[in-house]
């Protein structure tokens, strides 16, 4: 496989796209820091705050052990995701695509999308509550405003997300400090806290909350995200290089997730000593925590709390958007314009929030927040089970397959989560049937069959890799394999750019370009990698799709050189129009030939039209080659 060298970047900040070769010690570790911080942001979102406050106020310190356990589960699973991404160059969704049939992948995609919507729901409610606490804005307006922050988010994604991430992480740091300061003020009982680390039996309410805590901590979409983001680090692909990359990423994950654990534990302990200790057992809302802060600190801390709540929600929205892109591309091989996917997810999440406020009043939002975290937990099995299978596969992971003790531990955790979830689902269905006799038909004929269907799907996902050790399938990335080129004669220009998208139009596009320049011109074959990672990290991406695209482009170049033309490959990253315009400028191209897909207008709106954007951005002639329709014989 051909790889291409990148310039060595000095380490500007932790989220910079970083080359890691030739660095030692601390600088080496720092060059790997980054992906896990993006992931850990999701571990401190409003959903976590809600479950921690509810657990602390209702059960005192008794559920701290659940928090610690879910942190350990998260650490193990995120490290498996890292291993999958580094060793196989695939994210979890792409690996699922190779291992399961198309229909199962579609089901897995739907479930993962529901999890992302549930997560987005938590961000919407967090943002609405934050605005309500800061400016007294009614919650229904706060929820409506969250539609606008979608547009703000896409604007910031174009401006460079790393500055925003730095800002958000510093805000979360401030919140952590605020909670720490409050700990000293409320003076929790240290012995009681220590007792909280001893596991206790869970009753109905505490089981529901414990599962909420696990769902809020071990987020399914974070596993997809992490396995994709670690591929952004350019590493030495030798065995020693991969081993050291896994080791440094382990430290990255451990530091980031333990910081998140301390913030969550602080919230739980604070709620336990302030509410539970004083007899307020049902005060489980984020708004109440805000009141509590006002009593202790005066005006500053509550404002800080509200700002941090908004910030945590916003940063989780960013990671949710990226995860949405990764699961859609991985499971379905479908790539649509980011603004549209973002808007769809947000709209689907806003509807239940609106319905809850209108139907149950503003008090219902806190319960909806915790429900959203339970939904996340119910989806976990569908991400964890394939992940453990893929990383244990000796044939594909080689020496990096998960070792037996770790594998046993991972299956124990998976069984625990699935077992708790099954118990919860049965318990909730029974409660429903008992409390509202009128809806028993709905329970028997709609909800129970759905629950059974999802259970059978989980069983299939678990059993298939065990019984069906299949031959390696070719890797399907959203492009085909480069086609061979025939001998092509043509006419003259000096530097000609040709955009390549590995579709059947490439042959026509190249033929038209060669007619312009003949054998005298120099041809630049331009292809842009558009994966989620490429949009985010640019040049450092070396995932499976990038590698495949580079190889395919090299085949085209080789074919042209063989026919006696002067050609070279140019790879761009991220948004196609911007990347193409940059290559045109940097290479001094004086004529650009582009293939057009001939989409209908609606399709162009969804998939985006590159040709128009490029024409506005370059100052050279652009020839657009439309695919030719087959002529019918008259």
Automatic annotation (TrEMBL):
GO molecular function terms listed in the Swiss-Prot or TrEMBL record: cadmium ion transmembrane transporter activity; manganese ion transmembrane transporter activity; metal ion binding; symporter activity
Record-linked CDD domains: USP-like
Protein origin, superkingdom: Bacteria
Broad class of where this protein is predominantly found: membrane
Membrane topology of this protein: Multi-pass membrane protein
GO cellular component: plasma membrane
Places the protein is found: Cell membrane; Membrane
Entry annotated with the keyword tRNA processing: no
SUPFAM superfamilies, per the entry: Adenine nucleotide alpha hydrolases-like
Transmembrane parts of this sequence: 63-82, 103-129, 135-157, 164-185, 205-225, 255-276, 296-322, 343-361, 367-388, 408-426, 442-463
Limits of the UspA domain: 493-626
One Gene Ontology biological process: iron ion transmembrane transport
Keywords annotated in UniProt: Cell membrane, Ion transport, Membrane, Symport, Transmembrane, Transmembrane helix, Transport
Role summary: H(+)-stimulated, divalent metal cation uptake system.
Family stated for the protein in its record: Belongs to the NRAMP family.
Protein name according to UniProt: Divalent metal cation transporter MntH
Organism: Mucilaginibacter terrigena
Lineage per the UniProt record: Bacteria, Pseudomonadati, Bacteroidota, Sphingobacteriia, Sphingobacteriales
């Amino acid at each position: 496989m051909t790889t291409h060298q990148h310039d060595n970047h000095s380490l500007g900040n932790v989220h910079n796209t970083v080359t890691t070769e030739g660095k030692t010690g601390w600088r080496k570790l720092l060059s790997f820091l980054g992906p896990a911080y993006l992931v850990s942001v999701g571990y401190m979102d409003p959903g976590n705050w809600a479950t921690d406050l509810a657990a602390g106020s209702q059960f005192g310190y008794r559920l701290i052990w659940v928090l610690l356990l879910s942190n350990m589960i998260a650490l193990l699973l995120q490290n498996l995701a890292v291993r999958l991404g580094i060793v196989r160059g695939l994210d979890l969704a792409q690996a699922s695509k190779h291992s399961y049939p198309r229909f199962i992948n579609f089901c897995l995609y739907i479930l993962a999308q529901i999890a992302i919507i549930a997560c987005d729901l938590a961000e919407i409610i967090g943002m609405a509550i934050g605005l309500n606490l800061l400016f007294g804005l009614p919650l229904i307006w706060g929820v409506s405003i969250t539609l606008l922050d979608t547009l703000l988010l896409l604007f910031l994604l174009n401006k460079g997300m790393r500055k925003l991430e730095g800002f958000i992480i510093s805000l979360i740091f401030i919140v952590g400090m605020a909670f720490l300061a409050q700990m000293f003020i409320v003076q929790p009982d240290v012995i009681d806290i220590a007792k909280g680390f001893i596991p206790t039996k869970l009753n109905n309410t505490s089981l529901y909350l414990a599962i909420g805590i696990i769902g809020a901590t071990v987020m399914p979409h974070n596993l997809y995200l992490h396995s994709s983001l670690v591929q952004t680090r350019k590493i030495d692909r030798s065995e020693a290089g991969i081993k050291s990359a896994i080791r440094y990423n382990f430290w990255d994950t451990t530091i980031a997730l333990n910081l998140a654990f301390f913030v969550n534990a602080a919230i739980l302990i604070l709620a336990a000593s302030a509410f539970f200790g004083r007899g307020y057992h049902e005060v489980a809302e984020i708004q109440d925590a805000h009141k509590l802060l006002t009593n202790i600190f005066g005006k500053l801390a509550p404002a800080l709390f509200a700002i941090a709540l908004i910030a945590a929600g916003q940063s989780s929205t960013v990671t949710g958007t990226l995860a949405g892109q990764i699961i859609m591309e991985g499971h379905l091989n479908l790539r649509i314009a980011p603004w549209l996917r973002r808007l769809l997810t947000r709209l689907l999440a806003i509807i239940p929030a609106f319905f809850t406020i209108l139907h149950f009043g503003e008090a219902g939002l806190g319960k909806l927040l915790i429900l959203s975290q339970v939904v996340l937990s119910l989806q976990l099995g569908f991400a964890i089970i394939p992940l453990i299978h893929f990383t244990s596969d000796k044939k594909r992971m080689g020496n990096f397959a998960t070792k037996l003790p770790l594998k046993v531990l991972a299956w124990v955790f998976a069984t625990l989560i699935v077992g708790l979830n099954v118990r919860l689902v049965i318990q909730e269905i029974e409660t429903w049937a008992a409390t509202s006799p009128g809806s028993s038909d709905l329970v028997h004929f709609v909800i129970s069959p759905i629950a059974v269907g999802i259970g059978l799907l989980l069983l299939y996902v678990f059993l298939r890799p065990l019984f069906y050790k299949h031959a390696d399938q070719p890797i399907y990335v959203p492009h085909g394999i480069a086609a061979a080129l025939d001998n092509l004669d043509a006419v003259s220009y000096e530097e000609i750019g040709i955009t390549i998208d590995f579709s059947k139009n490439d042959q026509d596009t190249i033929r038209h370009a060669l007619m312009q320049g003949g054998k005298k011109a120099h041809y630049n074959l331009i292809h842009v990698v558009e994966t989620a990672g490429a949009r985010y990290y640019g040049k450092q991406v070396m995932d499976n799709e990038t590698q495949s695209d580079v190889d395919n482009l090299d085949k085209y170049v080789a074919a042209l050189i063989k026919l006696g033309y002067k050609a070279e490959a140019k790879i761009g990253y991220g948004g196609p129009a911007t990347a193409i315009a940059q290559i045109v400028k940097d290479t001094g191209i004086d004529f650009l030939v582009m293939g057009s897909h001939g989409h209908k207008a609606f399709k162009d709106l969804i998939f985006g039209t590159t040709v128009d954007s490029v024409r506005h951005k370059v100052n050279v002639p652009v020839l657009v080659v439309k695919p030719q329709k087959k002529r019918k014989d008259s």
